[in-house]
Design a protein that fits this description.
By secondary structure, the protein is of the alpha/beta class. The chain has 9 helices and 16 strands. It folds into 2 domains: 154 residues, Quinone Oxidoreductase, Chain A, domain 1 (Alpha-Beta Complex); 130 residues, NAD(P)-binding Rossmann-like Domain (Rossmann fold), CATH 3.40.50.720. Helix content is 25%, strand content 28%. The strands form 3 sheets. Strands 3, 5, 6, 7, 8, 15 and 16 form a 7-stranded mixed β-sheet that branches. Bound molecules: NADP nicotinamide-adenine-dinucleotide phosphate.
């Protein structure tokens, strides 16, 4: 099968022929139709997670996918050969299987039937970013009428988080470039703060002198860059990047912490059902063939993904 893979640690990702993998216990083999890209694909490609988990090579990139069940391992129930499904390769040692390939192994726990109303590209854009957005919004638990600042709102996670926070009745303040403002407003942002012109903190403080009720930070890697100063005392903060240090938050009179997405069946099915019902927009802004998957990953690495990038693998 053709697969975008890293042949050995330190090598650049390239497309080459690899054997079709065989599903073990509790694992589903799918023929991939579409694979959604995520920032973690780049982290895995360069070995950033090698300290956390063993990697085995050749290592196929990609975590999200939608396709058709080709075979199931022992103990898999709920899906059968020929079913149209979507899902995620959960992080588990060793890191080796991926979805940017003609066939992919997914743990049954994160494989679900694709709603008939969703095409494969749309379904493939949901699992990781949708689950991360849901976890972040649940962590700050916005109440109707409260204001949530989402820093990094323009990316894959942010595009879902804006909608999920808005659906809870919150007023959403989103960061994004001027060129992206209309898209973010359509998704549910009440106002869009351009992070490329002047300080986000100054702009938020000017608009909300008493502070916002909650902050979802999707871009900071360190506590020092989390904009805790614009959140009112007693407010909540969530980070997808481990930047919400609880001691720092407590010192500022805030609560919250770091979230981990859990893109298992119970989480991704309701998101897909909302999307199929038209209540959650899956904002796929770029669709590329497998041959250009590395270009899509480079766009994410450059911080230039607006919405989701999805790779089509087969018809
Ligand atoms: N903890 C978890 O379980 C989990 C799960 C999923 C993702 N994540 C992490 O969460 C982060 C966001 O994921 P993603 O998929 O949304 O990434 P993404 O699609 O690459 O989006 C990031 C967005 O941030 C924007 N941005 C860049 N610099 C910014 C700044 N200084 N201020 C405000 N916005 C800025 C970019 O906007 P422009 O396009 O306008 O430049 C880009 O669209 C990633 O780092 C990812 O690794 C964690």
């Amino acid at each position: 099968m053709r697969a975008l893979n890293v042949s050995a640690a330190g090598e650049q990702p390239a497309i080459s022929e690899l054997p079709v993998p065989e599903p073990g216990d509790g694992v589903v083999l799918i023929r991939v139709k579409a694979a959604g890209l995520n920032a973690i694909d780049n982290a895995i490609a360069v070995g950033m997670m090698a300290q956390m988990m063993p990697h085995e090579y050749p290592l196929v990139l990609g975590r999200d996918a939608a396709g058709v069940v080709e075979a199931v391992g022992a103990g898999v129930d709920g899906v059968a050969v020929g079913d149209e499904v979507f899902g995620h390769v959960l992080l588990a040692p060793p890191i080796q299987n991926g979805t940017l390939a003609e066939y992919a192994l997914l743990p049954a726990a994160s494989v679900a039937h694709k709603p008939a109303g969703l095409d494969f590209v749309t379904a493939a854009a949901i699992p990781l970013a949708g689950a991360a957005a849901l976890a972040a919004v649940e962590a700050v638990d916005p109440q109707p009428g409260q204001t949530v600042l989402i820093v990094g709102a323009s990316g894959g996670v942010g595009s879902y988080a804006v909608q999920l926070a808005k659906a809870r009745g919150a007023t959403v303040v989103a960061t994004g470039t001027a060129a992206d403002a209309d898209r973010l407003t359509t998704l549910g942002a009440s106002s869009v703060i351009d992070f490329t012109t002047e300080s986000v903190a100054d702009q938020v403080a000017a608009a909300y002198p008493d502070g916002v009720d909650a902050l979802i930070d999707l871009v900071s890697y360190a506590p020092a860059t989390v904009l805790t100063g614009v959140v009112r005392k007693g407010g909540k903060v969530a980070s997808t990047l481990g930047a919400a240090d609880e001691q720092t938050l407590a010192g500022a009179g805030l609560t919250g912490g770091n979230i981990m997405a859990g893109p298992v069946r119970e989480v991704i099915v309701p998101l897909a059902e909302q999307a199929a019902a038209g209540n959650l927009k899956v904002d796929v802004t770029t669709v590329l063939p497998l041959e250009q998957a590395a270009d899509g990953l480079a766009t994410i690495a450059a911080g230039k993904a607006s919405g989701k990038i999805v790779i089509t693998v087969s018809e």
